[in-house]
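User: Last request for today: this protein with magnesium ion, please.
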Amino acid sequence: MNANPAIRQEASSPQTSKPVVQAKGLGLTFETNDGPVRALADVDLTINKGEFVSFIGPSGCGKTTFLRVIADLEQPTAGEILVNGMSPEEARRKRAYGYVFQAAGLFPWRTIEQNVALPLEIMGYSKAEQKERVHRTLDLVNLAGFEKKFPWQLSGGMQQRASIARALAFDADLLLMDEPFGALDEIVRDHLNEQLLDLWARTGKTIGFVTHSIPEAVYLSTRIIVMSPRPGRVTDVIVSPLPKERPLDIRESPEFLEIAHRVREGLRAGHGDD
Amino acid sequence: MTAAAGTAPAGTKTPVFRRAAEGKTLPILIVLGVIILIWYAFTVYLNAPWQMDAYERAGTEWTAADLVRDTMAQERPVLPSPHQVVAEIWKTTAGTRLTSKRNLFYHAWITLSSTLLGFVIGTVLGVLLAVGIVHNRAMDKSVMPWVIASQTIPILAVAPMIIVVLNAVGLSGLLPKALISTYLSFFPVVVGMVKGFRSPEAFQLDLMRTYNASGTQTFWKLRWPAALPYLFTSMKVAVAISLVGAIVGELPTGAVAGLGARLLAGSYYGQTVQIWSALFMAAALAAVLVGLVGIGQRMVMARMGEKP
Ligand SMILES: Nc1ncnc2c1ncn2[C@@H]1O[C@H](COP(=O)(O)OP(=O)(O)OP(=O)(O)O)[C@@H](O)[C@H]1O
Ligand SMILES: [Mg+2]
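Assistant: Here's the final one, the structure of the complex with magnesium ion:
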């Protein structure tokens, strides 16, 4: 606990790497009928290109809100944030990121391939290009052969993979994922975690990932952001010493358990006086 | 297949009556039978006073059997018996030349044509208004109250005015009648489609936003397909109500053709059998129209991947 996380972070991220998300003193207060709700306060955070950053924290601490601010779905009320060096709105207009929601949210009236093609249609890709990309991304998430199926014909895990394919189909370098595997069972989750790491390694994308699961966060991330509620703040930033190559049984290694322990401590500290 | 046929209740070899007993057919037939029985009872009950008067005046002796038989065969009964109505419908459909003004199908066609025209205009108008209401706050606030107010005025009061006013500006024939159908049918479409266009969930709209989709793209790729089930449900109501509108539209014009005209003529001359046969034709027409919308719905929904 005594190691200063900020220093370790500086040490491990090379000076040359390009910042994708830069937040300074970021705050967001929702005005509700029962008075203001401070969802985020004083968040200082930089996500560099190629990083896999997980956000973990108790329910209601502002993880979703932070992703939504990056995605320009929510406007901050304090501080500033840059995405690819631009305002979130500009970045969104340039289609800088793909967003995976907690629910797969496939359109039920579209087949799997039509769902994956949705962003491509909107962004004006040619028919041939659409076909090629749909094929490629469905391959990437192991859904080849399910192109013509409708969402209800797929399991929850397959639907979630299709929604990831949908976010990968266009060339956004940043992937924002809000508890994408939250509703799935452990085995499917393990499998998807492996696939996601593999995909991250192959595509070199930058990933912002929200989760409630400590093992998931530790297994996937190069950096783990621990947050506390009311108002949502960053309480700890843990840089993972784990290698980029991570077989599933790395989760039994001492390093892994040590990081998991530190995350748990951080979460407990965030809960404060109890 | 043969082995399964013995156990499978829905097997192709099942006798018709067993399938009927398991499905909806039997209950429907029972209800229908009960209704016909009650109808016959009322035929006797309602027509008896006139019949007994007639016996009295003629000074004939009569038995209960006579009374039952005669109440079911009056020329202008208070309530015609079911078989009289069936006979009348048969006579005026299959028994008459199709082009003849006596043929009930001819009248049904007149009414149908204005029903369909009014329904199509009403549906298009309803969808357009709903698009405006969903996309424009000012329209949401200003148009919706008028839409609702329009339906609180009894159609019987509005119909003659529409016909007279349109006649005065030189419009006559099909269109004024159709506009009464429109007046009635646009309402369920507006209400249904406003609900349908607003049915996409917040995260679906957010998803479109992350793609930086334009308003038009969001409409065609999200709002429209999400609203289609609502469209068909509204259209079922709208097509039935359009038929009512077309019939009502024929009443104040003194129209000579159409189911409304048959109803009116029937009531002028006390031809209850004719009134009832026109009513049944209207009911059958409504059932066919609603059924056709239902078939369209199933076809579109199947293409949109709805679970069978
Ligand atoms: N649109 C909104 N209006 C008002 N308050 C909101 C809104 N969205 C979120 N909040 C509040 O902001 C706080 C943070 O919410 P957020 O959804 O970001 O939490 P979270 O960390 O994602 O929680 P969970 O782990 O349960 O998903 C909560 O207290 C929530 O009630
Ligand atoms: Mg959340």
